[in-house]
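Journal club prep — side note

Before the paper discussion, L.F. wants everyone to see what a predicted structure for a comparable chain looks like in token form. Sequence:
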Amino acid sequence: MANLQVTSSSSSTKPLIHAQNPARFMIECKLGAKASEFGGTTFVHPTTRKLSQACKSQAIQAVLASDKETHASSAINGSGLRGKLNKVVLAYSGGLDTSVIVPWLRENYGCEVVCFTADVGQGISELEGLEAKAKASGACQLVVKDLTEEFVKDYVYPCLRAGAVYERKYLLGTSMARPVIAKAMVDVAKEVGADAVAHGCTGKGNDQVRFELTFFSLNPDLQVVAPWREWDITGREDAIEYAKKHNVPVPVTKKSIYSRDRNLWHLSHEGDILEDPANEPKKDMYMMSVDPEDAPDKPEYIEIGIVSGIPVSINGKELSPASLLTELNDIGGRHGIGRIDMVENRLVGMKSRGVYETPGGTILAAACRELESLTLDREAIQFKDSMALKYAELVYAGRWFDPLRESMDAFMENITKTTTGSVMLKLYKGSVIVASRKSPYSLYREDISSFESGQIYDQADAAGFIKLYGLPMRVRAMLEKEKGN
């Protein structure tokens, strides 16, 4: 029988078998993931089968390891229908697609399959039952890892600091999550000795690009298998039939309402009636936020503390990145904050319509942007905003580990080093309204900006400035007048 041990760094479980050198588990304080390393302790236990609910403490560290009997029965000898791979690490959700990919990989590549599941804040309900599902699908191992703090600290916060927004609306929720998952897959592949990685992304979406560019950047020697670009399965009905044929439990019915992707930053909705941009989303579709019409009639004020462009506290209470975002999701959600309905241009060329819920992220974006109005001058804001467009484009396109994004991130870190202070926001029925902002590095001077007379700014100086500033326009007008005569 396959066995699962879940523990955490705060667990009282006695030490089991460390899968790697503890020195590698140090977490870097610097924002932005730069290289691939297996962050977090993995334990292997020969007998324990219980998936502990304690996995939501500091880190989920688990391996579903086959015992000798299971390993012997699941080992695949010889080549598959499409070639031979030894071991493949599969990005695994436990849903229909990835459940059928497990037997498909075994059948077509004659390989063992290690299922990898990342917790990026999608909720404990999506992690329950994975042991049984992976085992029933034919996997030889299941690795589960809590990436929530890493996701927010090293991926979300750099994008937030950069002010990265794709096509005016999208706060890059899925785009930021894919590289942290893919990076962890590369680490797991090294740990288990896999020669390939696989994902369940379709050939029409952006995620296939995001996963594979990360694989290429961190380990170009890994082979990549993308079943949706290879197999004959054309839809969910075909997948269900394949699952039944291979005795894989079917986790869904044939009718699917929405395609959703959830992490700690956002929840996306696609498909069904949303495929027609003329259709208004149904009220019961939303899961993270109440309808603004049903939100409290009384506004709520919150203060966001920021240090060097990075949020650190709510109402004076310092929190870890994941904890801070979790609390803001709850606060923003009950006020109907952060609903976005947009038609976007996918990287692969087509347009798609999606609805996003980003309650906490919308609050943080408003706070960081507002504080910059105090701490950055005109040229800095304009140049930063222009770079933010390219930064968002790179992240959306899956180029997280591109040297260009990393170099731009260094600029963002430097330009926001004085963006420290706090912003008071009023939340009311879907709106985020700035109430106040303050910073010890504020460039705003009341003695200069006041309409009252001041010693620093002499209003008479404006006349000469305007003449020089407007000289090109004046010269052009003089030329046009001469030509007209």
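L.F.'s comment for the group: The CA atoms of residues 294 and 429 lie 8 Å apart. Keep this in mind when we get to the figures.
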